[in-house]
Every structure is written in C-alpha cells, then in structure tokens.
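Tokens in:
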C-alpha cells in the first residue's frame, strides 16, 4: 500500500517537480552545487478550463498531453517527477499511539485500527501513509509516540498516477502540497520554539489553504473557497470589466 502511494510524506527525486493548479502547470528542476541547490530550469504553461478543477484532475488524457508538450518545448528528458495533491483532498491527523509497540505492531494499529477512527470514508476507499514524530508522556504519565497520519481517496491518487503514466512519466514523490511548502520554509520555521505555532497561508487560484504548523508539523488545516480568481472577479465587477482567468490582470489592478 505505501509503495503504491510513492510516499505521501515525500522522498527523494532525481527528476523534476511539477505543480498542477486550476490555471497553470509549473515545472522546476534543481541542480546540486557546493553551497546547496540551484534552480536550473523553471517553466510554466496555461491549463485550459475543464481539465483541473477544485483540486481534482477532470480530464487525464488532455492533461497528460499538455505535460508532454511542455516537456518537449523545454527540452526536458527526465522521466521521474515529484508532485503534490492539494491539501483539500487530504486528511491529516496527529494521533497518539502506545510507545511499547514494535514497528510491525505500530503499523498494523495505525493503518488498520486507528485510521478508521479519523477517516470520513470507508477504509478500502483511501490510501494511507504515516510517520513517527516523537515520544511524549500523556496526562497519566504513560509514554506514547505521536504519529502523523495522512490519507487521500484512492480515486484522487489514481487520477494522478494514471495521468503521469499516460504522459510517460514515473511518479517518484506524491505528497501533500502543504508539506512541500513547510519544507521550503523550514529554515524560517526554526525561529519558532517547539511549542509555538506558525500559520501557513497559501492563496491559490480558486481557494486559500490555511495550516497551523507546530514544530514543522501541520496540526490543523482548512481550505477556504476564495482565491485570486474570486478576488479578481470581484474587482472586475466593481470596475465593470469582463471576468478573466488571467492572473496578470489582478496584478496590474489598482483600487480607485
């Protein structure tokens, strides 16, 4: 099961990263240097309406074709890809588990017992992954381990895997986009103590994702159905302009 997920909690990749949003495909490649990593290539292309909506892939063949065209135009030959599922399509929970369990017992309890308590869907309809975080003592003085549980519906996971397979690519990493953002700003997050909370706000095209992060782990998350598209349309109506999906219009607007 966890192998099929290609690790919802991330991993390593020697290919490229691809972000899928309702309005654009964004591709980035990194190269390793002595001082760390450098952005060696970045390209972006517009996604027509009806292909990716509300965090879901609607038209896999068209999206796969668009990805192939983007790779060909930018002369990218890598076949391994790292990508992410929108947070709105994920279930993220931090759960306490008895510390005395060995790895096999812990895995069985998390995936087959505890997960069912937190899932709004039948267990057979979701893909699950988990990661141990650290030990603590509960209010009764019993030692336990915190476990980060992550789940997505299989239909969501399948749509991503099928799309990239049609594009001739191998998914090396499939995770949750909020985890990607947390790693990107991990140095900034280190200024907060282990008990302090930071709020991560990601304003996207058709929604805004909010995550409360403590010690690098999302403890609470919500998706608000308001993004740059809704803001742009509200301003367009106020200024008697036609609606548009082009974000450059919003960037150039000034409020009279």
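Residues out:
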């Amino acid at each position: 099961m966890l192998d099929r997920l290609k690790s919802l909690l991330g991993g390593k990749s020697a290919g490229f990263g691809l972000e899928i949003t309702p309005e654009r495909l964004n591709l980035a490649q990194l190269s390793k240097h002595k001082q760390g990593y450098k952005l060696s290539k970045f390209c972006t292309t517009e996604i027509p309406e009806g292909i990716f909506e509300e965090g879901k892939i609607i038209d896999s063949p068209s999206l796969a074709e668009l990805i192939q065209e983007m790779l060909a135009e930018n002369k990218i030959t890598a076949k391994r890809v790292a990508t992410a599922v929108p947070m709105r399509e994920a279930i993220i929970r931090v759960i306490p588990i008895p510390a005395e369990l060995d790895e096999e017992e812990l895995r069985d309890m998390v995936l087959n017992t505890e997960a069912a308590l937190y899932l709004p869907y039948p267990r057979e309809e979701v893909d699950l992954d988990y990661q141990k975080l650290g030990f603590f003592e509960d209010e009764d003085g019993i030692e336990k381990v915190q476990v980060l549980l992550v789940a997505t519906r299989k239909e969501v996971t399948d749509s991503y895997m099928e799309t990239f397979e049609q594009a001739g690519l191998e998914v090396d990493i499939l995770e949750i986009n909020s985890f990607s953002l947390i790693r990107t700003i991990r140095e900034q997050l280190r200024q907060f103590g282990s008990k302090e909370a930071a709020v991560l706000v990601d304003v996207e095209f058709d929604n805004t994702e909010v995550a409360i992060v403590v010690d690098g782990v999302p403890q609470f998350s919500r998706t608000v159905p308001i993004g740059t598209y809704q803001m742009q349309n509200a301003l367009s109506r106020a200024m008697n302009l036609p609606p548009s999906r082009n974000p450059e219009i919003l960037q150039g607007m000034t409020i009279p």
